[in-house]
Amino acid sequence: MPTRTPPTSPKRNPLPLALITLTVLGTLTYLLWPKPSGPTLETLAAENQPALEHTQKHADNGRTHLEAGQTHNYNEDHPTSGPHSQTWVNPGFYTTPQKKEELVHALEHGSVIVHYGTLTEPTQQTLKKWAGTHKGMWDGLLVVPGENLNGKILLQAWAKSLTLNTEDLGAAAAFIDAHRGRGPENPVR
After folding, report:
1. Contact at 8 Å (CB) between 104 and 84?
2. H or E segment at 117?
3. In this structure, are residues 107 and 156 in contact, taking their beta carbons and an 8 Å threshold?
4. Domain spans in the chain, listed from the N-terminal domain onward
5. Is residue 19 over pLDDT 80?
6. Which residues are within 8 A (CB) of 152 and not within 5 positions of it... i.e. 6 or more apart?
């Protein structure tokens, strides 16, 4: 009697199962991954270009670097140019005031500064997000407490400024996008 061998099952190709698994995982990742909330700075900037007509141009008061530890007596609460410190404030969101001499140096680098008094929670979160996104040394965004703003925000670039209502983030985005990275020391945009 011949020996009988058990029947063999046909070999399965693992490729379809792998494709199905990857498709399911990709779909779940897409559906569960956090989506950005609200419009981006770039989207708001594109939609709010007319707000830039209200930008004030200031005299360029020079780019002299002060000696270490030296201060300068500016004629305004929020200077946009002039003699400044050899050090600067790095981009970011700040809850304590920063030295004017270091802020002016950040402007020279091409950073945009948003000075604020009081902020609503949504505005604060949006500005924190933008400051966290734009952290470059030559094209950063600083958000700092300011003086005498009475419910407004003041945006600054080198020898330019724009005062807005705290909630006018569209116009703020337009100003930031138009001036970030365009300082006199090393323009990168």
Report:
1. yes
2. none
3. yes
4. 41-179
5. no
6. 117, 163, 164, 165, 166
- Residue 149, pLDDT > 80, answer yes
Q: Which helix (H) or strand (E) holds 101?
A: helix 100-109
Burial of 39 (C-beta count, 10 Å sphere; 0-12/13-18/19+)? middle
For helices 121-133 and 169-179, give the axis angle rounded to 10 degrees.
Answer: 20
Residue 77 and residue 148 in contact, taking contact as beta carbons nearer than 8 Å: yes
Tell me what percent of the residues of the chain surpass a pLDDT of 90: 71
Confidence of residue 155 (pLDDT cuts 50, 70, 90): very high
Q: Looking up tokens 């609503």, which residue turns up?
A: 120
CA distances from 133 to 57, 140, 187 (A): 27, 9, 19
Instruction: Write out pLDDT tens, residues 39-58.
Output: 788 888 989 999 999 999 99
Residues 171 and 184 sit within 8 Å (Cβ to Cβ): no
pTM for the full predicted model: 0.79
